[in-house]
Fold this protein.
Amino acid sequence: MDIFIQQVVSGLATGGIYASLALALVMIYQATDVVNFAQGSMAMFSTYLAWSMLQAGLSYWVAFFATVIIAFVGGVAIERVIIRPVENAPILAIVIVTLGLLVILTSVAGWFYSYIQKPFPSPFPSKPIRIGTVVFGAHDLGAIGVTLVILLLLFLFFRYTTLGLAMRAAAQNPVSSRLCGIRVSWMLGLGWGLAATFGAVAGLMIAPVVFLDPNMMGGIQIYAFAAATVGGFTSPLGAVVGGFLVGITENLVGTYVSVIGTELKLTVALAMIIIVLLVRPSGLFGRTTVRRV
Amino acid sequence: MAYSGSTAAKTERAADRAGNAAAAVFPTRAARAAGLVLLLAIAVALPFTMSGFRTFQFTQVLIYAIALLGLNMLTGYNGQFSLGHGAFYAIGAYTAAIMIDRWSIPYGWTIPTAGVLCLVVGFLFGLPALRLEGLYLALATFSLALAVPQILKYFEHWTGGSQGIVLSKPKPPLGLRLTEDQWIYFLTLAVTVLLFVLAVNLLRGRAGRAIVAVRDNHIAAEAMGVNNALYKTAVFGVSAAYTGVAGALSAIAIAFVAPDSFDVFLSITLLTGIVIGGLATISGAIFGALFIQFVPNWAQDISKAAPWAIFGVFLILFMYAMPRGIAGGLQLLWGRLSRRRTR
């Protein structure tokens, strides 16, 4: 039973990271119908920036917030400069542009920082926390906490601020929003900025676990896809729940089903995506799009 | 999506575009025929003018062209996104490798077998794909592509695990005085020409119009008596078969298969190829194949340190300049030139 609880908690920790990245994917998808394949590599790149700042001697939390701000500005800049010219191009052309971005960021990171794995510090104490007979990693608990704080902030932003309302409106009905005086195209830019921010936080939280290297977000992005699919690509709440579900499933299946072990872990993600898509294509929380004929 | 006259017109235009991919470059019928003969002549002469390595590279271009044509049928003509065609490529390659290596079957038989096997697998995968559209289908196929290397490594007994399977390059038959590379080139060229002719006939005919109609407005297509489910799954099967044949040829040409050469980047490369080449065009498959074969090499020449960064920049610039791909861009260019001439 102890092992079970431990695995669930560590599943929640990785799940929180999947949830952040899934949330980033969902935000961009909702606003533009585009899946950003570069989401993971943007997060990876931000994490490298944080690493550079830490090397330069800044304290962890200074580097953390500086990275988050840079990621936000960078996200907005990428939307404004790189995505905007293809805004009205066919969806696949935009997808190719995000793929181009993915290879550029991965390659440039490898060029600057080399492909050798680097350890990345965790801001939380390394001493495990003991509750009853169960032992939890402090970093796991910390990562869950950070994820929940981010989610809360996001909820408050979208629910109670005018800007959040404007962003939701722009995503839902661009034409009417423009008529109301909302600058829809800037709202998209802000969306990319926020998405890049979550990505950066996800990167900072996962780097102590998987180590820092230019391809570190590859597998995680897949789980984020799985999370967004499970929860529904149209629902931010779904993305979060999906992230936690995928994290827990991954851990429990890896622990208890010996056939799978670590070798076929990605296949578990595949199976989850396919099963959800077949049973409920719009995901657990997504709304089914109804089209008029 | 509202059904209106304009949608029908769009379908017609799309079908027209589909049929007249070559028309972008060659406006009249005679010129087009002459152009095709010239192209074929160049293709036949090519291996006699180049080193063995260059010949091998062009063999690879032909192989990619077959795979891209298959993917373009599905994604370009039928509107079903696939980010997982690397999986069918892998199935084709491993079918050929296992047949040659484990069962000592002559390599000639492996190509049609790979095609038929992928046809069946693709058809079966097309059944669940019926329920998925756009992004969701892209994700389902994407996860397929991701799982392939792991699955290949898992069935070590058949696939040789991460070591892969080493084959030997086939010797030219009938005492032909060709090098091995040249023989594989001509074999691939023959298969490519055959498959392109088949594809052109399929896509220009009644079936092709139905395939495009399903993409543009499936409800209207249904109303016209097109069996959506049948067409979608059949196109999935045929598309997978083309890609499988390409995979088998690649296994024979490279004489080596290993799980890691069929990772998700292969699928992404294929998708890139059709978008760069031009969606829903036949000639786009060739342009795309040339792009994905040679541009990474050029990128390497430009910058040894970060070749993929250069490649990424190329990708983005191409999408800015020609959002409808090379074939689409040429068509647009030709349209402008001819309009100016008539004025």
About this structure: The interface with chain B takes residues 29, 33, 35, 82, 85-86, 89-97, 99-104, 106-108, 110-111, 222, 225-226, 229, 233, 263-264, 266-267, 269-270, 273-274, 277-278, 281, 291-293 of chain A (CB under 8 Å). DSSP finds eleven helices and two strands in chain A. The longest strand of chain A covers residues 129-131.
